[in-house]
Fold this sequence. Notes:
The complex is a heterodimer. By secondary structure, chain A is α+β, with helices and mostly antiparallel strands. Chain A has 2 domains: 4-235, Rossmann fold; 242-356, CATH 2.40.50.140. Chain A has helices spanning 44-52, 94-104, 109-123, 138-151, 168-185, 196-202, 220-225, 230-235, 264-273, and strands at 4-11, 21-28, 33-37, 59-64, 67-68, 79-82, 156-160, 188-193, 205-210, 213-218, 242-247, 252-255, 258-261, 277-282, 287-290, 300-309, 313-320, 327-333, 343-348, 354-356. In chain A, β7 (156-160), α5 (168-185) and β8 form a beta-alpha-beta unit. In chain A, α2 (94-104) crosses α3 and α2 packs parallel to α4. The longest helix of chain A has 18 residues, at 168-185. Chain B is built from 14 helices and 2 strands, in the order ααββαααααααααααα. Classes of the chains: A alpha+beta, B mainly alpha. The interface between A and B is medium-sized, with 28 and 20 residues.
Amino acid sequence: MAEVEFDQASRIYTPGAKPAVNRLDLIIDDGEFVVLVGPSGSGKSTALRMLAGLEEIDAGQIRIGGKNMVGVASRDRDIAMVFQNYALYPNKTVGENMAFPLKMRGVDKAVQQEKVKAAADILGLTDYLDRKPRALSGGQRQRVAMGRAIVREPQVFLMDEPLSNLDAKMRVSTRTEIAAMQRRLGVTTVYVTHDQVEAMTMGDRVALLKDGALQQFATPAELYDKPANVFVAGFIGSPAMNLFTLPVGAEGVRIGSSDLALPGSLHSRISSAGQDTITLGIRPEQWAVGGDNGDGAGGVKAQVDVVEELGSDAFLYAHLDDEKQTPVVVRSAGRSGARRGDQIALTPTSEDLHLFSPETGERL
Amino acid sequence: MTVTAERPAEVTPRRPDRGPGSRADGWIRRAPLLPALIFTIIITQLPFLFTIYYSLQSWNLVRPGSRQFVGLDNYVKVFTDSQFRQVALNTVLLTAGAVIFSMILGLLFALLLDRAFFGRGFIRTLLITPFLITPVAAALLWKTVLFDPTYGLINFVLSPFGAGQTDWISTFPLTSVMIALVWQWAPFMMLLTLAGLQSQPHDVLEAARVDGAGTFAVFREVTIPHLRRFIELGLVLGAIYLVNTFDAIYMMTQGGPGTASANLPFYIYQRAFLGFDIGQSAAMGVVVVVATIIVSTFALRLIFRSFSGEES
């Protein structure tokens, strides 16, 4: 068990080109579950592989338990990794797969058996110990990969999208199991995913990366409530936050043909920033929907294109009646009766709308 | 209300008398394949039957009129012929030696090539070249350019060390032939094992490294099990081809001195076309074919099993 520290860690594949991981700074506490999330090519897997010793650390340092890992081989880092495709040894049985890290450390045979058996009990693999991986289902293979990591009792668990090859239902149940197991074992864990739902539900803290650079490192709630910039705002939350870049008026902002009055506190924030345009972020649930009958007076006019009825609530995909027909997503109550083609009037309900600088994208 | 689907009754297939699936229909489907089958029988099975027939005759071409039916007499002579046993042993040694050493060399080369370095494509091509050379030319090359006691490069290279006077081919005839064969076949083994190495999933290798395996442990625990079927395939294919080696022996040693470097195909050739003993050589041919069928049945079963079973 150990603290993990990325200190300006960089991975540069081609000198001169943009680094795959660019001066990453993270301090992961002992026993913490941290999720690295980001779109494809954001460098999240590369960062994990740097920690695993599978990629070079070209600049900066990565420390595990205070020890610098630059130049240290994977086998000497006291880590265990779960791979996306599980990477089981096809010629070894489940038991041999799980015992392999112990065997490589010269652990006594009897102790190996004991630990493998204990891990197999936890993971429900006891009946499969003599099978080869190819005779297992995807979910079982995933468990074997977990088991192989657990028997090691490493300082750090590394997981590289371990759920992406499971079906949707299995993914949800395994997600909770992994999170629960990590809490019980208390081993520092770094988990990579591109799925923001996994990131939000599993992590104590979430590090969001884009183009190799850290965007924000915070708890899931903070990431959702106070996104540090436009990218974080757009990435976290499903459907994504509505982002509009708008001219600032006397009392609010101008959307399409209508003036949108903003609550006083927000408006004072805008004036104090001294901007004449602003990027306004409104989550789908931060809208109140009014209809044609005038109860949405003063709201923003929009026309519904698609209704996604989910039962408990519904998402309306609409466009504003401005020149660009800016798309907008709105969450409304389920079975609200909204249909394609309806004219609606939208009013922001919350004071906690998000304001970003249009130039830098940073939160104001 | 829940509707439960009723389980369908068991369906037993019935063979119709007419139409699709009937016996006549089966023959209609097979008919287009018959010419190929007949052709195969004519060119492979008929000669074999003739050979069996000849093997029951005493028939020497240099003694006209001596031809007569002698039953299994030729076979008795084959099994009591000490030269035949010597040559059979030579065949086993030559085949096994050439296959095993070329596999070891090929695997080494494949391991060296299984990484990115400058000029890899060029070096790979160079390493494959021996396999592309006509066997006769390769044998000639080894005999005259390398092994020749007077002009050979090997003696030239060794002469500064005072060891350049050996007539390699007459001193070590079987080994010399084997070296030439290894030189030609190592590239084939290299290609096969290289294909195996490059089809190895990277994440499994990485997992082994994270799990604490050093380079040699990764090779022993992960790479070799993965390569097993490629190695088996190489050994079996190489053996099938090399057991029939003729050109190298013919060019380099003529089977000599005596029968020291003759293998079965060469010995049978000698008995048939230099000794003109058709009956004897036919009997030897039959013995070799039967032995080959037995060995190859096991060998082929081995590769089919490892290729159908290990695929995940």
